[in-house]
Design goal:
By secondary structure, this protein is mainly β. The protein has one domain. The strands form two sheets. The chain has a two-stranded antiparallel ribbon. A two-stranded antiparallel sheet has the order 2-3. Bound molecules: zinc ion. Zinc ion binds next to loops.
Length: about 80
């Protein structure tokens, strides 16, 4: 897993609360019991597209900047 990006709202200084909208493509191991109960394991994020990040307090009016954008491909381990 790569470390997640950090955000900061430059409007109010918020560092901890954001509404993040993203599209993810994942691969995971679906493990069913005989009774049909599902547990999802080993989820890998193959692709993630960030659509929007909004400050929880300012909403669309807030200006959110990315502090640490992980652009590099994640090293699988
Ligand atoms: Zn804000």
């Amino acid at each position: 897993m790569s470390s997640p990006a950090r955000y900061r709202c430059t409007s109010c200084g918020n560092l901890t609360r954001f509404d993040v909208t993203s599209t993810r493509r994942t691969r995971s191991y679906h493990h069913y019991t005989v009774g049909g109960e599902l547990s999802v394991e080993d989820e890998q994020v193959l692709e993630e597209t960030l659509e929007s990040v909004e400050c929880r307090w300012c909403g669309a009016a807030g200006v959110v900047e990315v502090l640490d954008e992980s652009v590099d491909t994640a090293v699988e381990g």
